Every structure is written in C-alpha cells, then in structure tokens.
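Service request form, structural biology core

Requester: graduate student, group of Dr. S.
Request type: structure prediction, single chain
Budget code: on file
Notes: please return the result as structure tokens.

Sequence provided:
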Amino acid sequence: MSNSHLKKININKLAVGMYVQAITDKKGKLSVKSQGHIKQACMIDILKKKGVVTLVIDTSKQLCELQNLKDVPDNEGDLENCKKETLPEISFSSEIDKASKLYKQGKVIQKSLMRSVKNGLPYDEQISKEFATEMVNSIDRNSNALLCLTKIRDKDDYLLEHSLNVAILLANFGKSIGMSSAEVEELAHAGFLHDIGKIKIPDDILNKPGRLTDSEMDVMRKHVVYGVETLKESSLNSSLIRVVSEHHERLDGLGYPYGKKGDEISQAGRMIAIADVYDALTADRVYKSGMSGQKALQILLKDCPEKYDHILLQHFIKCMGIYPVGTLVKLSNERIAMVIEQNKEKPLKPKVNVFYSTRGNHYLEGKDLNLVESTVSIEKPVLANDYKIDVKTIFERNVLASISD
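Core staff response, request fulfilled:
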C-alpha cells in the first residue's frame, strides 16, 4: 500500500479506537457500511456477523484515549452503528436484596465446584453457566447492587469471593464497552472459573501470609495450566478456556504461563487481567488489608501500556467510577459513609449511606444521603481498618435491613 498509515488487517485484529478506511474482503451478500471509528466492541461484532474478513485501517486516525472516543459524533462516517435495546434500570433498593442472595448462591456454587475438582469428581458446568447469566441479568437491572457486594468481603473466603468478584467486574466491564449479551455472559463465566486451578495448589503455598519464594511462585503459577486442563475436560467453549488461560499474561510478554505478548492476547484476556489485579489489590486478606480502589487503579495505570491495555483500562476506570459502589468515604461534615449508587452526571456526588461519626468515634443510625441534594461533599476515600469498621455488619444493618423494613 502506498500510504504508510494505511494497514490491512484481519477482522480479529480490529479493536476499539481504530479507524476503518475500507472493507477489502467479506463473505455473504449483506451490505456493510465501511468507514468510521470503532467506538464500541459491539460494532466489531456486527462487522463479523456481516461476514467481514479483512479491512484497511488508517493508523493516523486511531484514537487511544477514552475522551477522544466520546468526542467522535455518533453519525460520523458510514460505519455500522450499534442498535441496542435500552432496558429501564430498577432502583438499587429494589435489586440489592436479590443481588445479595445471588452473591451468596455464587459462593455456594464456587465452593461445590472447587470441592469436585479437588476430589477429581465430575462437575456440571451448566450450573456455573446459568449462574453467570443470572449475574449479567442483575447487572442489567442495576449494576450498583452486585458491584457494592464485591466490597463486602469475608477475609476467610478470599478464594471463593475473588473469582465471584472478578466475574461481576467483568460483567459490568463488558456491558460498558458494548459487548453483546452472549459475549458478556461468556466473559463473566470465564471470570467465575478463572482460578479453578488454585484448588490443586498446596494449602501452605496458597494461604501463605507474605511473599512467596521463587520456588513457591513456580508452583503457584501452575494454577493457570491446572485450570485450563480441568476446563478442557468439559464441554465449555474454547474461547472461554482461552480467556482463563490468559488472565496472567501481559502485553510485554512477561506474564505466564505462555509468555504471550501484544496481539497474541485476546481482548477478553486483556480485560480479565485488569479485573483480576484490581480485585486482588483491593481485597482484604487474613494477613493484610486491601488498598483503596483509587490506589489500585493508580498501580494499573503505572503499568500501562507495557503490561495492560491502555484503552481498555480507561474504559474500566470510567465504568467503575471515581468512587466505586461500596467504597467508604469521609465526608466534609466529619462522617463516614458507604457509596451505594453512582451519579453518572455528577460522579463526585454519589448517593451514600452515612453511618459513623469521626468526631465522636461512634456509629450512627444509618441514613441515605444524595450528595447532589446536599452541601456535604466527599473529602477522601478511606479504608475500614482506618476506623476499625466492620463493613459486612454495617452493610447488613444499614443497607439490607432498611430495604427489608
């Protein structure tokens, strides 16, 4: 090609942010609009369904920042637009009780699955698949509910909760970038199963408080291969198993177990890497407290674009929000509150549940407060351990109980 900025690629290499100059090869007779920016993953899905095989992209027009993607007008060019049904969301209070029961069910399913794998017994992957569908349905109804529950942790159940939380984060992540329902469900299912191989790691290594030795780390890294081998014995899609196999791969090729790099790692593999690290960094363990979501995101950003996909991480940050649901925050009136609902129009002013006084160092009767309607503002995010707060008890007493009343 004479123009150096024009590049011919396979449809599987197409990514959000790229500019499609022309369609060069396609199967079938369906018409395809052929120019414009790829603003959402669902646009790629449409092109695939219409038989597009290869196309030409203009690298000089590629957008690498989320803000730039937002600035592209919806009617730009002639490229396919996503036509999505917008389902009305229900309120947080209407969904949180259902979500809480679903979360508990997920831990039971995860425990049963781990037990079967550990004992070499067959397991019914249909159960986890149907559960993944239920998770996605809950995210569709109100994403705040399940996302809030990812912050209500039990230190003794890290392995069970981590896989469940990664599945929830991925369902929200996939939905936010416009993936199809089927893609989101498979992505969430992969998240739910991604650490299944850890059950074959010796407990003294798996639960060791502190840094692993080099030899112990070699053993720990085998959990990915163990998990892939286990899943290959099932009837699960190879695409799902691939995602599980890639959750510790990194763009610079320094991940494991296969040392994949760059385009060798699928989009879903890049997404699960982000969600997996984010939840691991923010999790409370028996031997250490988790860090704030803001600090975890800073660590991920520091490793971009060497290890993590920069565009996808920007999407992840946007869909999680400045103050993710479940975050504890200190308010300007010397109170501690839990974020229970995002405000998409004014992200600095979410809805919170106020429950603690830092002036008197005592608990208060829980009270919801919409910061949009108040002069009170958020000073900073805080950790539960900073004030010796039992988040699980507070959540059950102030959030769930108030909804049941």
